[in-house]
Amino acid sequence: GCVTCLDYDEHYILTFPNGYGRQLRGYKYTHICNCRSILTVPWIELGGECSINCSKTGYNASIVFHTKPFYGGKKHRITAEIFSPNDKKPFCSIEGEWNGVMYAKYTTGENAVFIDTKKMPTIKKKVRKLEDQDDFESRCLWKDVTYNLKIRDIDAATAAKH
């Protein structure tokens, strides 16, 4: 992906993590019939390595989205390292939850909250109207799939996807 920060005239190239639909399986024993039923709790999980690079400044970051281990562990964990131009050692390490609070640890010894995503305001996307989009722009291309998912018609959404 490409992100341009107009206020700073900076252009970033970034890669994305993998997305997984997960389901936690457990067993519940019932005393009456001595049988098991599977309990499921679905969630979306991100996993894998990503990078962010700014060609103008030379700063870059290496990010790891950690998947939850089968036993124990936490969901939504992230670690990252931020590098100055031409440096092999990071000047800042980050850890926390990508959908919660992330903490920064600097080489100066300073520790601080890097970001709290739960306190961030939601910013509405600015998207051109469908009729103003080209045929292969994302929202135009996927409009039938999106519409059918909203009305819960999975068969029509699948057909539109094909």
UniProtKB/TrEMBL annotation:
Pfam families: Oxysterol_BP
GO cellular component, one term: Golgi apparatus
GO molecular function, one term: sterol binding
SUPFAM superfamilies named among the record's database cross-references: Oxysterol-binding protein-like
Origin: domain of life: Eukaryota
PANTHER family per record: OXYSTEROL-BINDING PROTEIN-RELATED, OXYSTEROL-BINDING PROTEIN-RELATED PROTEIN 9
Annotated protein name in UniProt: OSBL9 protein
The organism's taxonomic lineage, starting at the top: Eukaryota, Metazoa, Chordata, Craniata, Vertebrata
